[in-house]
Design goal:
about 270 residues; mainly alpha; about 75% helix; globular
Length: about 270
């Protein structure tokens, strides 16, 4: 019931901001989700007894998102600045030098894993028809996750990733892909006609697979940190990172596939 109520309240707000929100509101929305998820990641790592630079990590994550949205052509510069800043930060900490590299690596991974991948949605949102594409990706992931959840609970016997994610089943994994394909076909026919059906099906198939990899990635982090959820901000759903883990992998793949189509088009 908590999951249902949260969805009924949250989904219209999310779709409204994505489709109709001002560009600055769109940036604030995406940046807020990414930074909340990043904070959850740093909390898990800290609670697991690891050394991390959370404040610097959040500041650099926000700076990375600013570059994604406002000056994407200079992303290479921020890619150099981030590890350099963390290296300098380690000099001003009193932590033992033996764990300095751990703090840098854990922080660096969190920045690029969440803000680095999440920033692609800012790039997608700025493309022509990008807001609709954002919604398309959301529909794929939501439909795939829902199909996997219900089919996996009813028919799931084999659990190939038991050590990482005990509830993930083979039946659920295949149902996820089928769910994304059905959703892609319906979305393409009903309202998403900017991209031919064949490409909608191809990219949905890829996102269906890679999105589940994103879910397993976060599960691996949570198992390593010995925690069930990344947070408890969303009733019935856990934390923000729990909700966007699949999107973090699917978004960049969708963006790269779309750019590939543009290259092919103009060859």
């Amino acid at each position: 019931m908590e999951r249902l109520i949260s969805g009924l309240i949250g989904i219209p707000i999310v779709l409204g901001i994505i489709l109709y929100g001002h560009s600055l509101l769109f940036f604030i929305f995406v940046a807020s989700l990414v930074l909340l998820a990043t904070q959850e990641y740093f909390s898990m790592i800290t609670n697991a007894g690891k050394i991390v630079f959370p404040n610097e990590g959040l500041a650099l994550s926000f700076l990375l998102l600013v570059f994604y949205f406002f000056v994407p052509k200079y992303l290479g510069l921020i890619g150099i600045l981030i590890p350099f800043t963390l290296f300098i930060t380690s000099f001003f900490r009193k932590n033992n030098a033996d764990v300095a590299i751990d703090a840098i690596v854990y922080t660096l991974f969190g920045i690029f894993y969440i803000a680095g991948l999440g920033g692609y949605f800012l790039l997608i949102g700025k493309m022509e028809g990008g807001r609709e594409m954002f919604v398309f990706i959301l529909l794929l992931i939501w439909a795939g996750d829902s199909m996997a959840y219900y089919v996996g609970r009813k028919y799931g016997k084999s659990k190939p990733f038991k050590m990482i994610s005990p509830n993930k089943t083979t039946a659920g994994a295949f149902a996820n892909i089928i769910g994304t394909l059905i959703t892609a076909a319906l979305a393409s026919i009903l309202f998403f006609d900017k991209v031919p059906l064949i490409h909608c099906l191809i990219v949905s198939f890829i996102c269906g697979i890679i999105g589940q990899c994103g879910d397993l990635q976060e599960s691996l982090i949570k198992r390593s940190c010995k925690t069930k959820d990344s947070g408890n901000l969303i009733p019935g759903h856990g934390g923000v990172l729990d909700r966007i883990d699949s999107l973090l992998f699917a978004g960049p793949v969708f963006y790269c596939y779309y750019q590939f189509l543009l290259v092919i088009k103009y060859l």
